[in-house]
Automatic annotation (TrEMBL):
Family classification: Belongs to the CobB/CobQ family. CobQ subfamily.
MF terms (GO), sorted A to Z: ABC-type vitamin B12 transporter activity; catalytic activity
Pathway connected to this protein: Cofactor biosynthesis; adenosylcobalamin biosynthesis
Gene (name only): cobQ
Domain CobB/CobQ-like glutamine amidotransferase span(s) in chain numbering: 257-428
UniProt-recorded name of the protein: Cobyric acid synthase
Keyword Glycoprotein applies: no
Keywords on record: Cobalamin biosynthesis, Glutamine amidotransferase
Superkingdom, taxonomy of origin: Bacteria
BP terms from Gene Ontology: cobalamin biosynthetic process
Active-site residues, Swiss-Prot/TrEMBL: C336 (nucleophile), H421
Residues in CobQ/CobB/MinD/ParA nucleotide binding domain copies: 6-230
Function: Catalyzes amidations at positions B, D, E, and G on adenosylcobyrinic A,C-diamide. NH(2) groups are provided by glutamine, and one molecule of ATP is hydrogenolyzed for each amidation.
Amino acid sequence: MSGALLVAGTTSDAGKSVLTAGLCRWLVRQGVKVAPFKAQNMSLNSMVTLDGAEIGRAQVMQAQAARIEPTADMNPILLKPGSDRRSQVVVLGRPVADVDALEYRAHKDRLREVALASLDRLRAEYDVVVCEGAGSPAEINLRAGDIANMGLARAAGLPVLVVGDIDRGGVFAALYGTVGLLEPADQALIAGFVINKFRGAVELLEPGLRMLQGLTGRPTLGVLPWLDGLQLDVEDSLGLDVPLPGMLDPHGADTLRVAVVRLPRISNFTDIDALTCEPGVSVRYVTTPRELADADLVVLPGSRATVSDLGWLRERGLAERIVRRAREGLPVLGICGGYQMLAEEIVDEVESGVGRVEGLGLLPVRVEFAADKTLRRPTGSAYGHDVRAYEIHHGVATVGEGAEPFLDGCRSGAVWGTTWHGALENDGFRRAFLREVAGAAGRDFVPAPDVEFGALREARLDALGDLVERHLDTDAVRRLIEDGPPAGLPLVAPGGPGP
């Protein structure tokens, strides 16, 4: 098998990332050498490749589904919002600019060439490349400069599957409307539909599928059922609205309650995924001081806007409550941006440009933002266990006296801080850390000795492969990959404006 395919969606969070990962796992199990690709990704969840490039975390997960090492070519353009109007532009794994939406337009022609060159390199190295779109291909206000959806499909001649989320309602209108808003040359590449997150009897859906095909001339190639527990490296905070497995049954003396502060610019919240897999750990995201009342551990996660989010903590009254509980000996963990907030002083002329800011003062640390971003994959040890992690930050922390070393950060009393993302995915370290937290919080909680996060992730990726194999017309998908878009697909009225 040889070729490529684009998975587009009616909306963000429709299931593009999950279907792309499922296709990668299904194909690699068929003996196909496959790679994922997303030309342009807007996400605050990212990771570092072995050669020090920063790419979207979803593409790392999809590479794991394909059983290959991720590279910068799999996500050549990454946009990291720092406010409602400005984003850091990361190209082939390195930050190159900080722009607003209008300024970004000036970069589009060059970035289109970068994206197409990355796709060409992947297609030369792999049998199949499964591409993921961004947002919706029917965002007609953005079509002229599009490099992630129909702009990519047109340039590379890719057949397109459109995924719709039936759990939100209105899926038939969303699928029909998506095609209808596209100009004829774009419509010619839309080869079929996939309905995602279906609950119930498929027989009740079939009349609608037949009518949709009659209206559009395009088949629905699969109806994927709702499956709990498949939250895999979501791209943005929309995914935080889905209940976490560890949110269940938060009561009992042997339950460890973890409250993760949902910062406005929260980043790399995938750090928390490993905690949700631990039996007896209840995890929830919080935005008010009241929600911290019964927490055994408060986590301040990463942030793309450390100083701004620190100000938000103070405005909400969360800062005062976190400081009070830390001084009472109750555990607090800060990761990357959250660690920086725990410092005595932050000097930031780079990210926010505000200069000196007083931190929460819970760790004897001074943070100064550097122009160059630190991107690396460190290794170390804590509690007698090896730890592998990754770093993505501009802030450089200098630790003063009175603190113990902790994963390139420090600890003081029941407050821990580290620049390392992904540390909690290391099973031995995670269990030892949770035992320490439980002791400080006065809980009887004992971590399960046999939870392996890597094995759980593999099982989830296999479940996605099974989902594709059992519920998708894989013969039709093979034909699309090998032969490209079918000829003679009908035009769906009204048709959209040209680019």
